[in-house]
Design brief:
Elements lengths: L23 E7 L7 H13 L11 E5 L3 H14 L3 E7 L1 E5 L2 E5 L6 E3 L9 E7 L22 H14 L4 E5 L18 H12 L7 E3 H13 L10 E4 L9 E4 L5
Parallel strand pairs: 1-2, 1-3, 3-7, 7-8
Antiparallel strand pairs: 4-5, 5-6, 8-10, 9-11
Helix pairs in contact: 4-5
């Protein structure tokens, strides 16, 4: 059956209930220092999450920080922690390395850093996508993101997406673009593509299976690993996943099949 849930495995309400909408947030952080692919990744994630497939997130639920200062980012993290969100997605695209203190993320061209630990344990259910190198490397960016075309189905998709998240076991999942002591490809360069691009391609491919109600984080990651290995890179890049133990049928959704709604 795999780790997606088929349409008969979960009952989704479509009534006009007055229940309080889930409090959720996406934080996307990009360091564009010598990385031309970062704006592409951030823009593509934005378009994905605001689409029906990605859960029809609203603009007001998404923060995009490009080359933030350490102070600015830590203040944002503190605000998130204080808000006590039901669900949090954090995306980082940029430079990183593995040290004795853990994974260190370089957040701007000035070399300021934070620890991955600063981004964990901020919500009961949390997904982190960390697309950076994990081994021992100033471009102004104007992100041009297309506003998602709204349709009458977006409210029902958001409701179904939130119910799928609530159905998932409380957990934290971290997706790494590469393993410890490895480097990560920046962007498409004719013969190769980044982990983030492979992850989004994996979601699109998985949704060709019309019997899946949603694509879980684990399923999308596994396919992304397969896709990036097909690129025959001249160096080792082995994306890894770190997740809390949970039932295969109660994992976090990364994408929903809008055809059901």
């Amino acid at each position: 059956m795999g780790d997606g849930i088929r349409s008969s495995a979960l009952f989704i309400h479509h009534s006009n209930s007055n229940s309080t909408e889930m409090q959720k947030r996406i934080l996307m952080i990009g360091n564009t220092d010598d990385l031309s692919g970062v704006p592409i990744d951030i823009s593509d994630y934005y378009k994905f999450f605001t689409s029906p497939t990605g859960g029809s997130w609203h603009d007001g639920e998404i923060d995009i920080l490009i080359n933030p200062t350490q102070h600015e980012l830590l203040e944002t993290i503190a605000d998130i922690q204080e808000a006590d969100y039901d669900y949090l997605i954090t995306v980082f695209s940029g430079h990183g390395e593995e040290t004795s203190d853990g994974t260190v993320l370089t957040i701007n061209g000035e070399g300021e850093t934070i620890l991955l630990h600063n981004l964990t344990e901020l919500a009961e259910r949390q997904l982190l996508i960390i697309d950076c190198c994990r081994s021992h490397q100033r471009i102004p960016v104007d992100i041009d993101v297309e506003a998602a075309t709204l349709s009458l189905s977006h409210d029902s998709i958001r409701q179904a997406y939130e119910e799928l998240i609530q159905f998932a076991t409380p957990q934290e999942v971290i997706l790494f673009a590469c393993n410890d002591r490895e480097v990560s490809v920046d962007t498409r360069e004719g013969w190769t593509c980044s982990y983030s691009q492979c992850l989004l391609d994996a979601i699109e491919e998985a949704l060709t299976n019309q019997r899946l109600l949603f694509v879980s984080v684990g399923r999308a990651h596994a396919k992304a690993v397969s896709l990036i290995r097909q690129e025959h890179l001249p160096f080792a890049q082995n994306p890894t996943i770190r997740q809390s133990p949970c039932s295969v049928h109660r994992r976090l959704p990364l994408a929903v099949n809008a055809a059901f709604f």
